[in-house]
Amino acid sequence: MRLLIVIGLLLTPFSTSAASGMPVVSFGLPCLLLAAAAGFLRPSTDAFLLTRSTAPAMLAAAASVFSIAMLAFFAPDPGRSLARVAPHVICYLLAFQLLARFRRHPDELARFALTVIAVSGAVLAVYYAIHLALAARAYGANTVIVERYTGGLAALPWGSTNVIAAALIFPHIACVLLKQGYRCRWTTPVLGLILLAVLLTTSRAGTLFHGAMLLAGCVLAGRFRALAAWAACILLLLAGYAHFARENLELLISTRLSGERDLSNGRFDSFLMKWEYISDNPMSPVGYYGSMATFDLSSHNVFLTVLVEQGVLGLACMLLFLGACLHALFYHRSEARRERRMRRLALAGSLVAFLNLMVEDANFTQPYMVYFWMFFIATMAFVMHLGAAAPGARPACRSGVKAWQT
User: Which residues form the signal peptide (predicted)?
Assistant: First the structure.
């Protein structure tokens, strides 16, 4: 099961092409589906047990996934919507099985989940750098930089450049947690690859939020020398690019930061359009992933997107899910320095990822969904580890329904 998950995460950055006219599917999804199926082929009562600390979050996650699945059938193109429902369902089943089977070894599960996210992020970073280099060689660097609408020539088959930067947030967080919680030295060069890929996307939001995560991680971990070193490396990289590609740098600045283009890329107008629609049609959601077909432009704001596509019920399920995850992180207290630091870093990373969704709709891409759910698994495993380490904690586990009632 774990081998299939590893293969699935390694293949997650690669996908089919949108040119075929069919929904874009990540190559890692079939392996994850096989992993979920393999878990059910091994019948055991352990596969259906949850701890009291994680049961509310798992039940709230089930409600959110159910809302997404049901509203997909109301979208203008149910086929494309269901292609985005599949990763949620598959990864939720994986989360349920892994958290149940590893409940006696939660720290092992947390490290495994974080490791596969970080390694997959490194693969994505290298893949994007090679893709960008080939595009620049074929069409010229100026052309690749200018043609950036929905990613343009710099985009990967499954997402534009800002979406790629958003998906790399979870590998970034995983590297920080592995470094601080498990002393994994190999995460430093992996994080360097991720940050390089983010800079190559020239995504303003991606650069801002990755910079915020880097700052938060170093400050919360007390690694101010590391922060200075990362800042110096990034400045040297930018200085080198400015020296060898002056015209490209001027073109990049003029297209990304000047008044020649709307700095919001139409996002503000999209906000107003969606708000007017939901104000006039509060009981008529357009269906999961229905914004693109209905308005030709998504909301680029997670609250408005969920409200327009899933209605008040869908928004309530999402808020319940977020609240249950936050409750789980504070369900157990720990005086150990390592656990306190990892809790703070996990919260900081979750906040950065959520703030990014306030200006992006990266959550509609399959790699982002897979990384999100694997990070959710790591977080819930950490919660179980806190429960096992808490003074007076009882090792007994109950089913999800009984745990919720308790």
Answer: 1-18
- What average pLDDT does this structure show over 205-234? 87
What is the distance between the alpha carbons of residues 117 and 109, in angstroms, rounded to a whole number? 12
Residue with tokens 């979406």: 163
What CA–CA distance (Å, rounded) separates 10 from 27? 9
Closest CA to 209 of 360, 346, 63: 360
Looking at residue 25, the DSSP 8-state letter turns out to be -
Nearest residue to 116 (alpha-carbon basis) of 210, 16, 10, 195:
10
Q: Give the residue carrying structure tokens 């104000």.
A: 279
Of the candidates 42, 23, 167, 171, the residue with the CA atom closest to the CA atom of residue 84: 23
User: Residues of 282-293 as b/e, b for ≥16 C-beta within 10 angstroms?
Assistant: eeebbbbbbbbe
Count of positions (residues) in the chain: 406
Tokens of 102: 């590893």
Residue 136 CA from chain centroid, whole number: 28
Residue 38 to residues 90, 97, 158, Cα–Cα distance (Å): 12, 10, 27
> What is the separation, in whole angstroms, between the first and last Cα of the chain?
31
Q: What crossing angle do the helices spanning 106-139 and 2-11 adopt, rounded to 10°?
A: 20
Token code pair at residue 297: 């432009």
Measured torsion, CA atoms of residues 268, 271, 277, 281, in degrees rounded to the nearest 10: -160
Give the contacts of 173 (CB within 8 A, at least 6 positions apart): 213, 345, 346, 349, 352, 353, 375
Give dist(CA 174, CA 118) in Å, integer.
Answer: 6
